[in-house]
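Re: export button greyed out
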Amino acid sequence: MSDHPTVPLLIEKFGQQHIDVREFNGNTTVVIPKSILVDVITFLYNDPACGYKQLTDVWGVDYLDYPEEQNARFGVLYPLLSIDKNRRIIIKVFLSEDDLTVPTLNGIYKGSEWSERETAEMYGITFEGHPDPRRILLCDLFEGKYPLRKTYPLKGQGERESFTPITTESA
Amino acid sequence: MDGNRNNLPDALADKLPILTTTLDTAVGWCRKYSLWPMPFATACCGIEFMAVACSRFDLARFGAEAMRFTPRQSDLLFVAGRVTVKMLPVLQRIYQQMCEPKWVVSMGACASTGGVFDTYAVVQGIDQYVPVDVYIPGCPPRPEQLIEGLMQIQKIAAEGKTQSRSKPLGVVIEPKRTPVPLSLKPKEEDILKPPGSMC
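Workaround output, generated via the alternate export path:
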């Protein structure tokens, strides 16, 4: 069992059956169901004993062909930082392929906006309630393609070969 | 300057302080020592390019120290670093905006071939989409190689071709590596062992 001071608070508030704690390399990851994501994050943000006021990043993971059995194909991770307590915790939800939606955290952390847009266009995960769900980083050639999925070929689907050459005459 | 005094009568050639030449040669000679580079530096090769422009290697010795960050004022495009699919239209636009006559140097492995970045996001060699005159290999190239590439461009510029060329030159600067002489190699006993080492 983890000796992270925040874990007992989460178990007390949300019940043992919803909290799956994993420890690796000194990082504590708490896997929770998608349905209580916003509640858990709100609790971690507001509770004075937690005080996780900063969302460091948002990213996705594709667990296709992963050696260890996972709950579902995709994971979304939210590493949180408590500056007051000098503590970090990672919240993780699993998304199965038939329902790639997750609620946005923009109501709690304003800074989640761009990270969520990036995760959305790299993995095709929809962040429900996002105020500005446009694509953010990739150019128009990648419309509807999700390059960080394991099923996407590393060398692309011809995007890098699809330009018109210019010559000394045409320039 | 490739002046030609022989066309003058002998009596005049010795006495008069004049030099005859063609306009193209004169213009080419001027151009050769006033190349204005536009650094298109997208990665670590750009750092090496800065070193070339700084005092130790000093591109000013070749008259090419006037970096311009607008293509309208430059005639030599240095593509230093990997070019992504998002950046390639920008590179093409910049090339088109440059004034004639213009030359392109593809600096380093990434700009020339994509380097180790054989992925969906990186163009595998800019010469597929813009004409490249000089390729400089290396990761990154040594400043000496870069200077040699510039000197190749100078040679081309000195030829004095005022109209645009029909195809890129495709000159490759070969890397030159001098092996260290045996007398300069450190001996086994000279190599410092880390403190606390048992061997």
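Residues 33-175 of chain B form a domain with the Rossmann fold fold (CATH 3.40.50.12280). The button fix ships in the next patch.
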